[in-house]
Amino acid sequence: MAPALLESIYNVGIPSPSSLHGYKIPQWSEHAESKKRLDYEPGRTVVDSHEFYEHDDLRPSFPNIHWKPLTEVPYHDKGIRGDPRFRNLLDSATDVFDYNPKIGTEVRGVNLAKLTDAQKNDLARLISVRGVVFFRNQSDLDIDAHRELGAYFGKLHKHATTAVPTKPGLEDVHVVFTEGASKDQRAVFSPTFLWHSDVTYEVQPPSYTALKLLSGPPRGGGGDTLWASQYAAYDLLSAPMQKYLESLSAFHSAQMQANGSRALGRPVRREPVVTKHPLIRTHPVTGWKSLFFNPGFVTAIVGIPKAESDAIIAYLNELISTTQEIHVRFQWQKNDVAFWDNRICNHSASYGFAPHRRHAVRVACHAERPVFDPAGKSQEEELNARYSLPAVDKNGARQSNYND
């Protein structure tokens, strides 16, 4: 301790060292002096200025170009080649954990820009099983590496109406961009309607989809994304309802998206389509049955009265949007990546993050045409048998007390 400090201590009445007699000199705490004062304002977070923004070339644009209708393309699911234990992918991981039993897994220590083909195959298999997989701080995954990774799994989809980057040649990249000056959308859509699976109106809707956050609200600033498992949604249904829905198909329509773009004066790059898909589909990697339905694009159930169709749609909307145990919620940080399977997940953005900017880029590859295989299995039943868990009692008429 510096002599000057000792002198000042003695001058305020503390005995000199020769007469301490067990008296302890108060210790000066560097931690106390240097501790940063917390500046907390409830419900408010610091807003970045973005004066010098590194991703200007990935800002949204709506080029006036036109494409021919999509035709079917070959698809071979790379997840079939993956190791059932995901050992290639997890060999370089430092941690892996599930968010809940039904959906959502985070893998740490893996660099998505440097995966081997064997690791990519394991990744596809893991996504097929868990629905959505999260990777933190993927700063090496620039837009070229992002597209290359997505294209490994299949032909990248080009969206007919939404934004693409201002940089030319990236028309297979979908841009998410909202900032303080953007109009608030909460009054325009009901919360259930926001749940969707991307472009299910296509003949071959996407499978593996990767979204990377370039800039977003800080921790606590909002802008989370939620996913819902369609494996688990199927397993919520009673056996008679499962059997009934397995016999039905639904119309998925792009018309509303096209109408919305034209109303805003934006081009529609490919004419809208309406496509019929089975209401229950079977996954080629897992063999599990899943609901294939989303509030955003399904307009009608085929071959039944409208009142019955409307009732089924309303019921499935409620099931997807309000059943918490089939949901996972992800709080984004800069450079985080979510990788999900559109065949077995619905997802929804969340509002309330103004005035922050939220900028992300997404690629998605075409999958197989949806099919239903009656020999498919239930995820819940298979895992319950594997882990010796009791069968779920779906009799809602029995007596029970609510357990919070």
Structure description:
- The chain has 10 helices and 17 strands.
- It has helices at residues 3-11, 30-34, 87-90, 117-130, 143-153, 230-236, 239-246, 255-263, 306-322, 379-386, and strands spanning 60-61, 95-98, 105-108, 132-135, 164-165, 174-178, 206-215, 225-229, 249-253, 274-278, 280-282, 289-291, 298-301, 327-330, 337-341, 345-349, 358-366.
- The protein has a 7-stranded mixed beta sheet with strand order 2-3-4-15-7-17-6. Strands 14-8-16 form a 3-stranded antiparallel beta sheet.
- The longest helix has 17 residues, at 306-322.
- The protein starts with a helix and ends in an 18-residue tail after the last helix.
Order of helices and strands: HHEHEEHEHEEEEHHEHEEEEHEEEEH
Shape: globular
Largest sheet: 7 strands, mixed
The value of Rg in angstroms is: 27 Å
List the uncertain runs. Answer: 1-21
- Helical fraction: 10-25%
Would you spell out the secondary-structure blueprint of this structure?
Elements: H1 3-11, H2 30-34, E1 60-61, H3 87-90, E2 95-98, E3 105-108, H4 117-130, E4 132-135, H5 143-153, E5 164-165, E6 174-178, E7 206-215, E8 225-229, H6 230-236, H7 239-246, E9 249-253, H8 255-263, E10 274-278, E11 280-282, E12 289-291, E13 298-301, H9 306-322, E14 327-330, E15 337-341, E16 345-349, E17 358-366, H10 379-386
Annotation keywords:
404 residues; alpha+beta; 7-stranded mixed β-sheet; 3-stranded antiparallel β-sheet; 10 helices; 23% helix; 20% strand; globular; disordered N terminus
